[in-house]
Design goal:
- With about 550 residues, the protein is of the alpha/beta class.
- The protein is built from 16 helices and 19 strands.
- The protein has two domains: about 300 residues, 3-Layer(aba) Sandwich (Aminopeptidase), CATH 3.40.630; about 190 residues, Alpha-Beta Plaits.
- α1 packs across α16.
- The two termini are about 20 Å apart.
- Bound molecules: zinc ion (ZN).
- Zinc ion binds next to α6.
Length: about 550
Amino acid sequence: MNKTISQRIEEITIKLTNQLSVVETSGEINVSQTVYDILSQIDYYKDNPNDLKFVNVPNDKLGRKSVLAILRGKKTQSKKTVILIGHTDTVGISDYGPLMDYAHKPYELTEKFKEISDTLPEDVRLDLESGKYLFGRGIFDMKAGDAVIIALLEEISKNLDDFEGNLIYAAVCDEESNSSGMISVIPELVKLKKEENLDYLALLDTDYMTSEYEGDENKYIYVGTVGKLMPSFYVVGKETHVGESFKGLDPNQIASAITERINLNADFCDIAEGEVSLPPITLKQRDLKTEYSVQIAKTSTLFFNYATHISTPDEVLEKMKQAASEAFQSTIDSLNREYKRFCELAKRKYDVLPWKVNVLSYKELYEKVKLEIGDSLDEKISELSELLLKDESIDQREFSLRMVQEVHNLWSNREPVVVVYFSPPYYPHIYVEGKHPKEKALLDAVDKAIKTTKTDYKLVYKKFFPYISDLSYGAAPKDAKIISALKNNMPGFGVKYNLPLEDMQELDLPVLDIGTFGKDAHKFTERLDKKYSFEVTPELVYKTIINLLND
Ligand SMILES: [Zn+2]
């Protein structure tokens, strides 16, 4: 890339970083405005103001918005279009402690760090002294990535007579929280596609990229992305007084057995083309008893972050039901063992405990209750929905749980049971296998971009961007069986949690990430490698775009 573009990227990076935009604050609106203002200075948008606009997040308390810009080549009437995305929000800044006031001022912060360099971790200190890095909140995740896109749009716009095809850039808000920016942009993209008969080729993100392990010198380009589900469990035990402990069944013990069975268990890793997803990890486990008493808890809940490369919601649901059954059985076995030992010690008669494994999906529970009470079940569910929607302190996870609780409470069966369901959100994985022409074209475009980029860095392309991101919204499974397994087992879907699944299916895009390089995203030592990010990233992005559009 030529020097002027690199300098321009640095300039925009600093400008965007200077505008604090912590997720779920009004700073997000300000940074959208900054992006809009920079783009509106481009002659093309002065001449074509309709090609630059805001997309509001519907019903957003803060009034947040994303920016959507189209740049149309004039060389031919080509409908081919590449979509570029970048998020403009960041995580909070409290981790900077006394340096909080400098978190958004990269040059000043870098100087401040020099004053306290002896307190910094060794690798940070070395990077600081090298002068090769810029520090600041969001500079790496991912304002430099946005700057790369913006500077390329500026550059390309100077000679549109020689540019074939179109580019769309969406600068989206709220990525670090609920992705409401990207979720509201997706229907706009579908609308544009239909109205103008555009031929979308790929969805390209420039979110950050970093080393995958200690001493890793590779610089990655990721084609495709990891997905995420949140398998969740509602565990109903049998209450008892602590004085008659073996008469009860502690839901905490079953929940613990489920954690033991699933947490970080490599059996649940997805492997595609040798790339292994991380195993599931608990994000929450608690009982639902609100008071202190000498009665044991009656119910408990837990849920996992479950990364996917190939497993679909229906498959994950089955695996989780199986795991819950095994955990339930092992709890019963262990209780019987201990009860037998206790009876021997206490010289009492041992009778096998009465517990039976019972594991249901939410859909199965719903059907059982529906059989018993008919349509009044749906009435009760919508009454509760309405009530819960009014309370903003109830988040999407809590909402799902309350639905499960309600349906279970309406069931005549009071015996111990584990109900398996999904909590929001859902991020589909996108596996770019190369079987479809669009996938093949993208893999070729990336391959060619890497091969023609002269650099000392070791460039490697891999499948599956490893971080949960807005890229997941570029497609969704089309199989009705998969979608219904998700919808029917995620209480609150379409009510408290909305996902434009049909629009995602319509887009059906192969996705990729060509990131800037740096270290320590989401830490106060977050830093950007200037040379790679300002020189190599833009070249790779530019070449990939050109290869796709000129194919
Ligand atoms: Zn990011």
